[in-house]
Amino acid sequence: MEKSPRYHALIVCISAAIRLEFQSYLHSILGRYISFDTIDLYQVHTPSQITGYQCILFSSDRVQDEFPLPVPAGVAQFVCTRTFNHAFLDQIIRIPPGERVYLVNDTFESIPILIQQFRDAGITQYQFIPYYPGCGESDETIQYAVTVGEPQLVPAHIKNVINIGNRIIDISTINELCVCFHLPASLSNQITQGYINRILQITKLTETHYSNYIFSHQLLQAVIQNLPAGICLMSSEGEITMLNRQFSLDLDTPEANACGKSISALLPDVYSGLPFCQSTDYQLESKSGNPLSISILELSLPNHPPLYLVTSKKIPLTPEQEKELHERRTDHMEARLLSNGFSNILTNQVLVKNMLEYARRLALYDFPVLIQGESGTQKKMIAEAIHRASNRRQQPFAVLPGTTSPHLAGILSSAEKGTLLIDRAEYLSLEMQDFLIEVLQHGSQESRGFQSPPSSSFRIIATAGHDLYEDVLKGTFREELFFLLNTASIDTIPLRERRNDIPVLMEHFFQNLFHDSNLRLKDIISPSLMEFLLSYDYPGNVQELLNLTRFFFTNYAAHPLILSQLPSYIRKRLKKPLARQSAVKNSILSLIAASPRIGRSGIKEALARRGNDLSEGKLRSILKELSDEGLIKINRTRGGCEITELGMTVL
Question: Is the alpha carbon torsion for 346, 351, 354, 358 positive or negative?
Fold first, then answer.
């Protein structure tokens, strides 16, 4: 015969449905040891109603505060910690990532708590919006809703509803009851293990769904980007949400600046009144006057606002049409070039803004400019921005690399009436330097086997990867050419001196790669990795940051990237300082990695077994060094030591 429960607990709650749910749930787990009775808060009047119970469970702080009787001494009392039922995670994660989702309840108070519990469970891919009686008109563009047992409150237009039921009692309350009634430790362990196993199974399923989504999204982007046709996706509001490189080329617009804009904003003003949100075909002209064919197809999807697929195609011209087009070109191209210069150089730093403002002023004049700075500091971009903001902007921008000598005359001819960029001037041979001196001083001149075009007329901008006058002092660069090029000079600023720009630039790069202007850096980069990226020296400057962003983009799957996912060339540099440290220091770090939360005494004993007897003071000193270097975390009281993500990366 089955024994009756030895202990008795009373559940006090306002809602009858929640009282029965709590009673059923607790009985299924602890009913062998504890019997659970329930009572409505407002039905409690006399002490006899709570006599004989060793524990009182209140469903909330409010219920405990309003309880009308004093709780007898010796009777334990707990406020139940509640959470959502994780069994419904599988349904929630089937909502497409990035969606706006109503979180529906009868009151507002518990919704922020529930949102935080979702975040703690790793559900961060949605924008949850509270919805409750009296909150105002519903947004009909929202197509999904999650409700905690209140499906009748969901707006009528939403057909995709996930009812996760009332929140259940959290495992922390279960464990408190086990401790209070001195239940077998094996029971508590069994409950905890079952809870963890269920969470792990659901987490694994969540990761699979989200990883598959990310992979499919990246695969789709790769396919679209490599199609020979121009393709664009437009929202029901007429905003571009995705486009490929060919579409941006057809419309003569930079791909990075198109997302979030309307198609009419990328075309001449004469087309501003055309309705693009409909299935139709147009023949029009780009801002540069090129004939263009655009086809728009409305995509109707279930439970989703309409989308529009836009394809573009340039219309080929006969030689006569090309000539006519050249003769009637308007100023549209000029405006486009102006918008593509300095506006593409992003910064929040005052020093960089001042440098760019000086470069803008130099664009108004026609004398030579020397741009000096480390590799990857956007020297060529600044040079092109100066050209595009100058009165030569409609003429060619030709580039002469410092190592180039063949076809020099052709390069100079191609720069006629425009701008000649001498890129990496420090690599010019002495013969080429002498030739350029003649060209700059006398215009047309034959010298040392090189020939310049007749009556050369172009502006000179030169770049160098370091202070070019150092080469003058070494005798490897002509002093005369240095002063001919250095009428005005710009010194670019390395990225390590403009660290506030690192997150700005990286987020911009990610938004372009993902074609998502709403994407935020925290969605891709973990806090520990971001901390490292903000302190890293970037020998390759902005170019290295762009390379890193592309590397992270190809490695991103479902969760924010961590330190161990840095490129190998950086991880190897991180390991070098560790290799130079003492063997004892390395041994201590390895011990902490192998035994999380190990204390000083444990470390001291393990070292002694390896033949390393350290004094207490010496061990404390080494641990502090490792902590200061960010390789370990020393917990207070009896928490011991833990290796950090950086420590694991360099180990």
Answer: negative
